[in-house]
Amino acid sequence: MAILVYIENTAGKLKKSAFELASYAKSIGDQVGESITALSIGEVPQNELEKLGQYGVSKILTVNQNETNQFINSAYASIIASAVQQENAKLVILSNSFSGKGLAPRVAAKLTAGLADGAISLPSFEGEKMHIKKSAFSNKAFANLTVVSAIKVISLNPNAFEIKENKTDVEITAFTPSIQATDFNTIVKEIVRASDKVPLAEAEIVVSAGRGLKGPENWGMIEELAAVLGAATACSKPVSDAGWRPHSEHVGQTGIVVSPNLYIAVGISGAIQHLAGVSSSKTIVVINKDPEAPFFKVADYGIVGDAFEIIPQLTQAIKNLKGQ
Amino acid sequence: MRILVCISRVPDTTSKITFNNDQTELNSGDLQYIINPYDEIALTRAIELSQGGSGSVTVIHVGQENSDPIIRKALSYGADEAIRIDAPARDAWFVANQIASYVQNNPFDVILTGRESIDYNGAQLAALLGELLQIPSVSIAKKIEINDNQAQIDREIEGGKEALTVSLPVVIGTAEGVAEPIIPNIRGIMGARSKPLHVVAPIEVSELGSITNYESPQPRGTVQIVEQVDQLVALLHTQAKVI
């Protein structure tokens, strides 16, 4: 059962998810006695690709043609399917990132493969069947899936699997896929990316604030706290609905679902829709002046008090800790 | 311009999600069902796009008779007609094949879906339809404009956005920001009763996988309330080891 992993890069730099996927695939490979082949599309320097060898990848297929340098899901799906065919892969693993969500179902449909979307566990195998756990109801529950198709596709949630070193000799080979002109009916005109910001879905630490902050002008202290922690900023639904913060920061059942190591909630009461989006965070800190706020019930640590006093103190205390 | 909007039926966002004793089925008895919130955004944008032109909006849903209330609701927003493919929505693969089969015989210029349903969070439908119909798809759109047989779409990416030009026909999964959901008025609600709702027989679709059972999240331990910021930082550093 050969395993193929599609790894993403941002402007030639491998994403954190690439190493999560490599580690995850290696764990599966060890379980079933298979080596790991990774597929990289676009211009990524050789020394960057070689890093994947640290995490158990033994072969890397690279596609580096002008027309494939920008992500177009239909073209990338054709490239992945073409690599699956060449490698005779039976398991394809992708990241459940924003791009992955537009790509994995196309890959699965091309291969008539069952897709375990948003997987959060290692799979287990029973003959031709694969069992795997995925998040459901925006993390209010989990579903155990059984995939029965000959080829299987997994899209792994960000932050669901820890990066594990596993040094392997790695061989890099250029790969020429079969792509069709109709795969390019999409043109990428412009990419706008705030390069100084930590992407929310991948962030290990998230600092999130709600209506308790009273207005968008008070977000400076949240951004400062996030900056000292190397964290992404987020917000509750009422805050993005009011236009205080962009929709892309809205965490919750109808927004982004996150699973960071640390989630700090400031002035958010903890409505069930918001809690769904953060419940798989490893550690939750709640700062709220209302001791009855429902968020405290799911928190690991809490401070009852005024955010306007506590946040600057917290930023200073973390600066002191990091300065040591 | 013919626009198709795919809607799904999901438990209301305030729902507590529980399962039967052997954790194989959702306890649906006490749940309130709604149109998936992201599909409402798609529907609103479809109605906006069809206004001022010769556009039409068709709503399609895979489900049984108990879905009719949410389909009528979609019609009350301003959709012109509705199609219900009469089968339980087994999974995204099943639903995508049903809708693709309908669209193959009834072409549309623009197909909108929500970015994901809030029950199984698959975010699969837009891309599955794109592949099954061999047309472009954009899965998480923040902005949609249609002109001159092209769609201008902003797609969400980590930490930013990508501006795309896509030829029609196209499938688009809509996220927040594409439109503000509207509230149907009395005229819309009255009118919805007389709009056509066609019930269509499903096609056979092979099964690629299924849900065996469910798990509820482990309850978290009791919260530790601390008085001082320094104490919190110490605990996060030495006990939780997250900073």
Record the SSE blueprint:
The complex is a heterodimer of chains A (324) and B (243).
Chain A: E1 2-7, E2 9-10, E3 13-14, H1 16-32, E4 36-41, H2 46-50, E5 57-63, H3 73-87, E6 89-95, H4 98-110, E7 114-119, E8 124-126, E9 129-136, E10 141-147, E11 152-156, E12 171-174, E13 186-193, E14 205-209, H5 220-229, E15 232-235, H6 237-241, E16 262-266, H7 272-278, E17 283-288, E18 301-304, H8 307-323
Parallel strand pairs in A: 1-4, 1-6, 4-5, 5-12, 6-11, 7-11, 14-15, 14-16, 16-17, 17-18
Antiparallel strand pairs in A: 2-3, 8-9, 9-10
Helix pairs in contact in A: 3-4, 5-8
Chain B: E1 2-6, E2 9-11, E3 33-35, H1 37-50, E4 56-63, H2 68-77, E5 81-86, H3 92-105, E6 110-114, H4 125-133, E7 137-147, E8 150-157, E9 160-167, E10 170-174, H5 186-192, E11 197-200, E12 209-215, E13 224-225, H6 229-239
Task: Describe the protein's architecture and organization.
- The complex is a heterodimer of chains A (324) and B (243).
- The model of chain A has no long low-confidence stretch (mean pLDDT 95).
- In chain A, strands 7-11-6-1-4-5-12 form a 7-stranded parallel sheet, sandwiched between helices.
- In chain A, helix 3 crosses helix 4 and helix 5 (220-229) packs parallel to helix 8.
- Chain A has helices at 16-32, 46-50, 73-87, 98-110, 220-229, 237-241, 272-278, 307-323; strands at residues 2-7, 9-10, 13-14, 36-41, 57-63, 89-95, 114-119, 124-126, 129-136, 141-147, 152-156, 171-174, 186-193, 205-209, 232-235, 262-266, 283-288, 301-304.
- Chain A has 8 helices and 18 strands.
- Chain A is of the alpha/beta class.
- Chain A has 2 domains: 2-184, 3-Layer(aba) Sandwich (Rossmann fold), CATH 3.40.50; 205-323, 3-Layer(aba) Sandwich (Rossmann fold), CATH 3.40.50.1220.
- In chain A, a hairpin with a 2-residue loop joins strand 2 and strand 3.
- With 243 residues, chain B is an alpha/beta fold.
- Chain B has a single domain (2-212), classed as HUPs (Rossmann fold, 3-Layer(aba) Sandwich).
- Chain B contains 6 helices and 13 strands.
- Chain B has helices at residues 37-50, 68-77, 92-105, 125-133, 186-192, 229-239; strands at residues 2-6, 9-11, 33-35, 56-63, 81-86, 110-114, 137-147, 150-157, 160-167, 170-174, 197-200, 209-215, 224-225.
- Chain B has a 9-stranded mixed sheet with strand order 9-8-7-10-6-1-4-5-11, with helices on both faces.
- In chain B, helix 2 (68-77) crosses helix 5 (186-192) and helix 3 (92-105) crosses helix 4.
- The N and C termini of chain B lie far apart (54 Å).
- The mean pLDDT of chain B is 95.
- At the A-B interface, helix 3, helix 4, strand 7, strand 9 and strand 10 of A face helix 3, helix 4, strand 7, strand 8 and strand 9 of B.
